[in-house]
Amino acid sequence: MATTQDAFGDDLVASMYVSADHGVSWSPIPNAGNVFAGASRTTIASGTPGDSVVYAFASGVPDAAFNYPQLDLFRSNDGGLDWTALHINDIVPAGANSDNPDMRILGSQAWYNQMALVDPTDATRNTVYLGGQLASAQSLDGGASWTILTNWLAQFGLPYAHADFHTAAFSDVGGLRRLFFGNDGGLFVSTDDGLTWDDSKNRGLITHLPYTIASNPGAGDTDSVLMGTQDNGTLVRVGGSSVFDQTKGGDGLGVAWSQANNAVSMTSTPLGSIYRCIANPPDDQSKWVSSSSGLSDTAGFYTLVDNAQAPADPTGLVFYTTRQKSVWQTSDGGASWTTILASGSGGVSADRGVRGGLFMIGTSPVDTQHLAVIGNTRFWISTTGGAPWTELDLSALIPGWQERGTSSAEWANNDVLYVSSETAVAGATRFAKTIDGGATWVAPANAGLPDLPVTRIRVDSGDPTGNTLYAATWIGVYKTTDAGEAWNHFGVGLPQVPIDDIYIAPRTAYIRVAAYGRGAWELTVVGPPDATITTVASAVQGQQDLLASAPSQPGVTYSWTISGGSITSGRYDSTLTYAAGTGTSLTLGLTVTSAAGLTASSSRVVPITPA
């Protein structure tokens, strides 16, 4: 038997056919009384091949909001030729709860999560198992009554089995009855007819589907990782543990973490839901609280959240999100949001919306005024942190650019801006740049960059020229050191799978990537040292014993200079003692050199007031 539909069940009603010659030929079932009708995607199950008793678990057609409801469970006693509707939807099962108050266990996404299994050892074929969105259930009387077996979060006294069921099997090899349920969380096994479940067979499998990855260098805990994953929620690793805990369920989409400090972390789920944690690390579900104050406009599936860069936002409180026709900013860590871009105002065309995706905003490392936003068919740049926006059509400015494929934007400074494209069009341009803030654009040679979608690009902040970038592609990470003229495959040991996101730590101490289907990966990189100067905000003419310091780092050398003052001690140490001169300011200079010969330099002006 077979059903017909398109890839997503869109607007098609399923028809059922039967084959008596192992699929060589097919004919429509008689379907007496047209009982099996109005179905979309349908899962068919029987105890053994050739059984006269067959079940069909069906989705209905979608509503205006593209929600696919559960239609019903059907039973056939003549091998699927004719059917009886079992009317299970309104049955209240044993173990009913707020997640599943009745037997509509497919929820609103019946096109996606369907599972049906018939116990082949029950001669009556009345023992049936169903799986849906948040739960699985069992019937011992052919569908007349039901018992909820599992819950996706182990709530209500029920055992845990992950959400979104897809497949099931039965085994009695060796005389031991086993149920196997397959869902978005892997394989779950029961040896007591569903009373308890074990998911230990998933251990060691690296199969997560991460969308995004972030870390928090400002907290002094460089090992912690926050990751948004398809179907497996928001995952958090605290410290150097090998354990990633799910602290938010559902689909984890965007993740963000304050980069200047440990003030706030954020995650998001589909259709506009954003959550923030102000008691980091976000290692418990109770720490996530909704962040929606001020937000309006219709949300798309992909809920973007992103943080401002550390040099531009020393508060660690600036984050961004998008809606279908707007961009929003918070300056208080998600306590409230304000709109900074809206279709139809501030230079943005009324008929142009923001593209759905997780990397649609580019933030400057210099300030929070320079922003880039990716639209469905347009591209916007701001130098004021909001309106007015300059609206561009990149497909008209960059040869070979596909207007609907722009996937990310990345500033190197307030003049140099890079863009990537995830278009699948062969031969298309997938990396381009402007060096004058968007006035003119050029596609570099891109030699060595594969002719495949580029999901995201990241600028290496350790390169002061802004010419070093990393590209997440469908076959791994690629690196350029000349702003895209030439690219090379980067890193050894990373699977050649789609890379969805890249996180680069300050000074490029390490790089972490989200590998779709293969989890999170890390590469430790020997980057330049840190030459950040910390000293007083101002001094008084002739003031003595002033202190300046740089981060203490093993294996590095320090060299201080001063103009407008004098060095008392510590010229070649991480801590400097100095005196102010009689002018209106002094300037401290520092060069730090690593054992590998990499250098970093910085300067700091200290105002001087009269004595």
Which properties best describe this structure?
mainly beta, 48 strands, 4-stranded antiparallel β-sheet, about 0% helix, about 600 residues, Methylamine Dehydrogenase, Chain H, disordered N terminus
Model description:
The protein is mostly beta strands and 611 residues long. The protein folds into three domains: 2-202, YVTN repeat-like/Quinoprotein amine dehydrogenase (Methylamine Dehydrogenase, Chain H); 210-524, YVTN repeat-like/Quinoprotein amine dehydrogenase (Methylamine Dehydrogenase, Chain H), CATH 2.130.10; 534-609, Immunoglobulin-like (Sandwich), CATH 2.60.40. It is built from one helix and 48 strands. The strands form 13 sheets. A four-stranded antiparallel sheet has the order 4-5-6-7, with no helix packed on it. The protein has a four-stranded antiparallel sheet with strand order 8-9-10-11, with no helix packed on it. A four-stranded antiparallel sheet has the order 15-16-17-18, with no helix packed on it. A hairpin with a 7-residue loop joins strand 6 and strand 7. The radius of gyration is 29 Å and the shape is elongated. The N and C termini lie far apart (94 Å). Residues 1-10 have low confidence and may be disordered.
